[in-house]
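Entry 0007
Protein: D-glycerate dehydrogenase
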Amino acid sequence: MTQYIFVTRKLPENLLDPLRSIGVVDMWEQDSPCPRAVLLEKAKKADALLTMLSDRVDEELLQKAKKLKIVANLAVGYDNIDLEASKKYGVTVTNTPDVLTETTADLTFALLMAAARRLVEAAEYVKEGKWTGWSPFLLAGSDIHHKTIGIVGMGKIGEAVARRAKGFDMEILYHNRSKKPEVEKELGAKYCTFDELLEKADFVVNLTPLTNETKNLFDEEAFKKMKTSAIFVNAGRGASVDENALYNALKTGEIAGCGLDVFKEEPIDSNHPLLSLKQVVALPHIGSASRETRIKMIELCVENIQRVLTGEKPKTAVV
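Output (structure tokens):
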């Protein structure tokens, strides 16, 4: 029996070729998110779905998808998927860990540097013709070297960010559900409570997954605990941050600046208050967006689908 595979975003055709030997590949031929109604209709006949973080795979979908065997999510995170419902309906869920670790760490540290040294603001200053001469404190930012970085969420990406911080002779603090003795030994990182990290760090970097415990973790009280010179970087999940509280903290000078690659609602509205502030560096969720890494992520999704549809165990199963 021919198997049906639905891909929810336009991807390079050649990377999907391996799937054509085991079934029919149908793809949403646009770079914009697949409409919910289309996704629900396609899911009814799908043996496999290759999904993005923007695709909600919930009980409603799973109940309709009688043939569905696997959801291969093109991301490390999977908070868009109801895991309990997936177990209930016997659907395998996979993600793409490891292959994007270093690339996302590159972007996270670049975001930290851009916010600290006001790089976006400075680049626009030149392009807008405002640069008329040199001045000692023209667009002066903050040093990064020998400062203290506080990493909230010391998973593999957090560890990779810490290695980059080590190269800048930074003191490394971290907060995590569990201690990481091997990271402490290798990098000299120090475990501390969440509050201690907020109080001591010059750069607070969020890399936590989205859970009930991390939703709105960075709220008004959290920002009040930070140094007034602190820079906040979020490359984890947008919903971990109370964006109104962040805006107020920046507006009132409770913290100095921030770099954001993720937002509560994506894409973010161009009229969002955060985007009106010069001390905010905002990116369109491009943490893993290098060509090399995105290709590896797609290849891993394809391999997971191949394995499940041919009766083998997937390579990176979540459930």
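Curator remark: The chain has a mean pLDDT of 97. The longest strand covers residues 3-7.
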